[in-house]
Amino acid sequence: MNLHQGFQKSNILFKSKCSLKKTVNRLLLLCAGCLMLNQVQAQADKRLELADQYFAAGEYYTAAGLYGQFLNPDVKEKPATDFPLHSKKNKSGKMGSYENKLAILFKQAESYRLAHYWTEAAALYKECFEKDAAQFGVALYWFGVCQRSLGNYTVAEESINRFVSEQAAGHPFLQAAEQEKNTLEFIRGQLARPDSVLYSLQKLGTSFETEKGFYAPMRGSSNQVLITSTETDPVVVAGNNPHHNRLFTAVLVAGSLQNIQQVVIQNNDSTFNQGAGSISADGRYLYFTQWKKEQGQSGASIYYSGKTENGWSQPALLHSVNQQGSSSKQPFCSVDGKYLFFASDREGGMGNFDIWYAPLQADGQTGEPVNAGSIINTPGNEQAPFYHNASSTLVFSSDRMPGMGGYDLFMSRGKETNWKAPENLGYPVNSSRDDVYFSAFEKDNLLTNAFFSSDRGSECCLATYSVSKASKKKMLSGIVYDCKDNEPVVNAEVNLKTASGKTITTITGEDGRYLFELGDGLNPSEFLVNKEKYNEKNAGVTVETNKTGWLTDTLFTAAICMEKKLVIKVENVVTVYFDFDQSKLKDRGIVQLDSIYTVLTENPTATIQISGYTDGLGSVEYNQVLSDKRARACADYLVEKGIDAARISFESFGACCPVEMEMLNGRDNPDGRSMNRRALINIDKGE
User: Fold this and answer.
1) CA 480/CA 200 separation, integer angstroms
2) pLDDT for 244-283, tens place per residue?
3) 276-305 pLDDT, tens per residue?
4) CA-wise closest residue to 402 among 192, 186, 175
5) Strand 463-469 vs strand 607-612: parallel, antiparallel, or unpaired?
6) How many whole angstroms from its chain centre is CA 150?
7) N or C: which end of the chain has fewer CB within 10 A?
C-alpha cells in the first residue's frame, strides 16, 4: 500500500460502506455522550480516553465526534476561563499523551479522513497546518489528499507542491507526496480521455428506505442480484452494535433494485457480519464472507452453505481457503463452475491482500488455493475479484499505480496464472475515490450493463452504479489503383459483401481510397469493384494493418489493382499474339476478343476478317496449318460466345508478311519472331 494510503484502510469489506453508517455512528456517539454527561464534572477527560478507544477499534466517525466534544464541550461544562488551543492542561482533567489541543484536533482530522468524511477532515487539517506548520506540516499533505478525494484537483496539486517545497529532505511523507503528484497527473489525463463520451453511468435506485444503502452487487441469472446491506438486529444486546451487514436478494427493474429480501441462512451466528456473496454455477452452494470486530480487531473468513427448501443451510467454514492468523474474503464462483476466486492476505502472497483461486469440488469444498501470480498481485492490495468467462477477463480492485486514488478497478485477460498486464479501466468507471465490487452478466459484453460500487459523490459511503460502454466505430479502409501506372482510381464503385450476404457500397475519393463503417455483426468477406473503362475486379478482404483510436478502430486492407479494358472501335485492326508453336489463346488475346465481341453485339451489321500468321521457323506446309489453327481459334471463340459464323471470315498465310525482322546482324531476333506469331482481325462497319 502507498504511504499516503497507509492510514486509510486495510480492508474495505470491514467497513459498513453505506449511508446507514453515518446514522449508526451518530447514535453511538449520542449514547456515549449521554453516558459521559452524567460524569462530566468529575471526569471530563473520559471523552478523550473513550475517543482513543473508538479510534483504535476502527470506529473513526464516532471517535471524531468524541474528540470534537472534548475540544468543544457544552456551554454547561465549560470552566469559567476559556483556555487557548495550545493549553497543555484543562482544569477538568489532563489530555493524556496529547501535547496540546491542536494535537487532538489533528487526531480528529485523522478520524474524519479514515471515515471518508473528506470535507470535515480537510477543514481540520487546514486549521492544524495554518496554526502550527512546524509541528503539523504533514497536515498540508493530508489536506491535499482530501482535496483530491473531493475532486478539487487544482487545490490538491497546489497543496502537495507546497508541502514538497517546505519539507526537508528525508521527510517520511515526501515519497507519498510524489506518488500523489503522479496520481493527480494520471487523473488529469483520464479526465481528458475522448472516449469518455462512450460511457453511460447510472446510480442504481432501491426500494430501501433512503438512509439504507447497499454494495457488492453480484449479478445472477436473468435480472436477479445478490447484494450486501445493513439490517437492524431484532434483539438489541447491551454493548453490541445492533446493526450488521447481511446478504439480500433483489430484482433489477428499470435501473432500480426491487423486491429486496434478506437471504435466509439457518442457525447463523447473528453477531457476525455477512457480505460479498456468490452462488455456485449450479445454484447448490452460497459462498460469502463473515467477520466481526472483537477487541478492536477484525478477521474475515469465507463460509459456504448448501441450498435448502427454505433458504440455505447452517454455514460451514471453507477450511482450504481460510488460514489461521489471516483474512480471506470476497469469494466469487466462476460461471463455468471450475474455480472460486477470493482475496486473502494469507502466507505465500505478494504483499497485503492478493487475488487467489481454488478449484471447486462437487461437495462445495475447494482444493488447494493458488496465488494468481505477480502479474496480477502487487505488494499493495488486490481485492474483490470477478471473472468474466465469456471474455476471459479478470476484473479486480487495487490501490496500485497508476490509479486515480483509493481503489481503482483493473482488468486483465487470461486465466489461472497466465495473465496479461492489468489495465486500469479508467475514467469514468474509476474516480478519485474507492471503486470496487465489479460484476457483469456473462451473456453480455464486459461493459454492458455492468455493476460496481463507489463512494464518489457521497459524503463517505459506497453506492452502486450501472455502467455501459458503447462500441467504438469500426472502419474498413483501403485504396484502389491502376495496375499499369499505379495511379489512384478515382470514383470507383466499391461493393463490400459481408458474410451474412449484405452488400454495402461506397465510392473512392481523389486519392483512390474507400472507407466503410462496419456496424455490429458485419463481417466483411469480399470486394467487387467497378469503374468505367476498367475490368470488373473481385478481391478478398485481407487486413494488413490496423489502427486503434479513442473513438474509432480502423482496419486497413490490401490495395486493389484494376486493369483498363481494351476498348476496340469498329475502325480498329486488332492483333492477337500467340506463343511459339501454339494456337491456344492467351489471356490477353481473350480480353481482346471479348472487346471485339462487344463491338459486334453493339453493331449488328459489322463483320470481321481474321488472318493467321507464323514466324519463319518450320516448313511451309507446317506453318500453313499452324496459321490456319490460329485464325480458327479466334473465330471459334467468338462463335462460342454467340456471334453468327456468317459474320466471320478467315484466311491463313503461314510465314508470309513478317512485321518484324527475325534476324539482326546475322543473329536470331526472338522479339521480332514473337511479333510475327499473330492473327490480324479487321473489323468492317458494314452498311
Assistant:
1) 39
2) 899 999 998 888 888 889 999 999 888 889 999 999 999 9
3) 999 999 999 999 999 887 655 668 999 999
4) 186
5) unpaired
6) 25
7) C
Distances in Å between the alpha carbon of 603 and those of 9, 213, 539, 606?
Answer: 91, 86, 33, 6
- As a whole number of angstroms, the distance between CA 434 and CA 404 comes to 9
CA–CA distance, 263 with 260 (Å, rounded to integer): 9
For 472-490, what is the mean pLDDT? 95
Strands 311-312 vs 297-308: parallel, antiparallel or unpaired: antiparallel
Please give the single-letter amino acid code of residue 180. Answer: E
Average pLDDT score, the chain: 86
Angle at 29 between CA 25 and CA 34, to 5 degrees: 150
Q: What is the 3-state secondary structure (H, E, C) of 650-673?
A: EEECCCCCCCCCCEECCEECHHHH
Residue 65: enclosing H or E segment and its boundaries? helix 60-71
Check residue 499 and give its pLDDT.
84
Q: Which of 620, 621, 619, 612 shows the shortest CA–CA distance to 582?
A: 612
Q: Are 269 and 255 in contact (CB under 8 A)?
A: no
**For 19-76, how does the pLDDT look when each residue is reduced to its tens digit (9 = 90+)?**
444 444 444 444 444 444 444 433 446 888 889 988 988 889 989 999 999 998 875 5
Is 379's pLDDT higher than 80?
yes
CA distance 321 to 342: 8
Please give the grid coordinates belonging to residue 14. Answer: 470491514
CA distance 336 to 344: 22
pLDDT at 294: 64
- DSSP 3-state assignment of 279? strand
What's the rounded Cα separation, in Å, for the pair 36 and 30? 10
What single string gives the DSSP state of each residue in 143-154?
A: HHHHHHHTT-HH
The Cα–Cα gap between 226 and 279 comes to 9
Which residue stretches of 504-586 are H helix? none
Q: What is the spatial distance between Cα 500 and Cα 45, in angstroms, rounded to a whole number? A: 80
Strand 573-577 relative to strand 354-359, pairing: unpaired
Give CA separation, 158 vs 132, 176, 192, in Å: 19, 15, 20
Residue with cell 482513543: 52
> Can you tell me the distance from the alpha carbon of 372 to that of 353, in angstroms, rounded to the nearest whole number?
12
Q: Is residue 85 scored above 60 in pLDDT?
A: no
Per-residue 3-state assignment (H helix, E strand, C coil) for 328-389 = EEEEEECCCCCEEEEEECCCCCCCCCEEEEEEECCCCCECCCEECCCCCCCCCCEEEEEEEH
Among residues 481, 469, 489, 496, the alpha carbon closest in space to that of 555 is found at 496
Give the start-end residues of each E strand in 448-551.
Answer: 450-454, 463-469, 473-482, 493-498, 503-507, 513-517, 524-530, 537-540, 543-548
Report the helix count and the strand count for the chain, using DSSP H and E. 11, 38
The CA distance from 461 to 463, in Å, is: 7
Q: How far is CA 335 from the centre of its chain?
A: 20
If pLDDT is split at 50, 70 and 90, which confidence band does 109 have? very high
Q: In this structure, are strands 552-557 and 648-652 parallel, antiparallel, or unpaired?
A: unpaired
